Amino acid sequence: MEFLIAPIIVALLASVLALLISILDKHVNNYGDVEININRDKKVLNVKGGDKLLTTLSSEGVFIPSACGGKGGCGACKCKISTDVGPILPTEKPYLSAEEMSENVRLACQIKVKKNLDISIPEELFDAKEFSGVVEEINDLTYDIKEVIVSIGDESIDFVSGRYIQLVVPPYGKIKEYTQRAYSISSKPSEKNKVAMLIRLIPDGIATTWVHNYMKVGEELKLIGPFGKFEKSDCNSTMVCIAGGSGMAPFKSMFHDMLEKGEIDREVWYFFGARTTKDLFLLKEFQEMEKEWPNFHFIPALSSPLPDEEWDGEKGLITDVLDKYLKTEIDSSKHREGFLCGSPGMIGACNNILNHNGISDIFYDNFA
After folding, report:
1. Closest among 133, 161, 160 to 149, alpha carbons compared
2. Does the predicted model carry a pTM greater than 0.90?
3. How many domains does the chain have?
């Protein structure tokens, strides 16, 4: 039994030591009042020192994107800190390029506020807000993708189609802390009192498990945003758009926004990749869009259709289907731009196909 007891004792001692260090740091290392100067006096905060920069800023209504909820696992909460706050931590290095390191870019979730700070953040982050919402609808789109529509009541959200929102997930089951995850907004910008998201179930995913197994219609929740830079350009280039799974979300918002605004002279090719027919959704919606928008082309493709499935559409990997259309259907004499949303692997593969076919202007929303 001793070989079992010893590791348990070590683990308990480590936990107690970590707790004591946290308590001592909070009460003994009293950093007092601290000033955070943002964007050269654009906003000056007077706060209590001792907490992480990300948490401190959000408590003052300044929201920096953090897809992992401040756990140091996404690298999204970047900001420039001109004050010396010590060397770059090992937890930051995987997310910072050499250029960013030279420009004093740091992760806000890894920096503790100990003294006066001068920081710089993108101006658009001043428009990000925390919204109180109520779950209005939960719709099953496939066996593993739900559409969640949240009403934000009298509040109004202003965003450009293609942006994302952070969903605040409350404690549930064995999850004892609040956390946040980022999801692209699938509703139109004109729907200012609601936010829709397409959320795919990820095995053991904290947020997606809550959405799929615990979330209820009528439940109150928090949203933070909008964030991101993924959007269509203002030129009239042919749009070559590729998505898979819940990566459909920003395109759903983007295409309905364009249709609503009468931007139907622009040519759009939308490729959607899935494995089998059970992974397809919203087909009729985009097929109806083709009827209203002559320059809109919707190409769903199955990579692994089952033998008994009735499917007369494109078959094969989405990269192969994309390559075929770029070579035979999409006019290469016109300027073309690529827009991608899906897994990192899909984005990398499609990026290569676009480059090989002469498309260098590529925009993407990359998520794991």
Report:
1. 133
2. no
3. 3
